[in-house]
Each structure stands twice: as C-alpha cells, then as structure tokens.
Sequence to fold (160 residues):
Amino acid sequence: MGVSGCGKTTVGKLVADGLNCEFIEGDEFHSPKNIAKMATGQSLDDDDRRGWLVSLNQKLREILVADSLAVLSCSALKEIYRKWLTDGFSTRILFIFIKGDFNEINQRMEEREGHYMKANMLAGQFDALEQPAGVPTFDLAIGSTEIARQVLALPEVCER
Fold:
C-alpha cells in the first residue's frame, strides 16, 4: 500500500513472483466512472473508493476461500479503506507500506505514460494518507528489488 507512484505494482509483482502466487493490480478493479473521474484530474472521494474496495474485498475473499495466496497492490490510504478492504478476514492479510518523498514520487509520476492517475493528484493522496501503524514499512529510495527482497524475508511472509 501507499500513494500512487510509490512502486506498489513493481514491488508487488516481484513479491508475487517470489511467492509463486497470483498478483492482483488493484487499479484494474476501478469502475469506468472512477477511471473517467481520475482521468480528468479529479480525486476520488470515500464514496467512490468504497465500491472499488468492496470489489477488491470480494476478490481477496475468493482467494482465501480457495486457500490460495495472492499479492495485491492497492493504495489503501486511510484506515477505513483498509478495514473495507479486509472486512471479514483482516487477520489473514499482511499490509506492507511503501513510503517516499513527495517530490521524488511526483517526478516519477510525471515521467510515466499511459496511466489515468496524474501527478497533479498526488498532493491529495498525501493529504488523505493515514500512515498505518505496526506494519512493515519501506522507503522507496532503497529500490523495488531490495524492498521485495526484504518483504520476502519477513517472518510473516516466510510462514505462508
């Protein structure tokens, strides 16, 4: 989890590869309405995000019912979003928080192409972010490969 542009997808794919499990890109679960709203530079509000997080919760529930494992990239900026995301099975989810400097992430976002989430919306994400307490936290400055290596070495991950 973390703001847009922090490297969630890259790290998530590396971790999923290391665990030999499914990778789920949370952005792919946004409704067309949410995508259109973000594409015009408008931030999503809690109501917009709720339906998205409920659909992600349903996907995670399917995976857990099948006794499978997956890695999900999702901003999950607020505590309430994390609760909506994990409703019904919160003890079976391990959050990883990737944090970084606003200017560095903003530059990364300005350089990426083809994504509906634009750099001008990053400030709103930082404003909304409620940094989670008690979860493994990594600074994006150490690089995606190193973050993934450290995540895969976590006792909580090794036990899975």
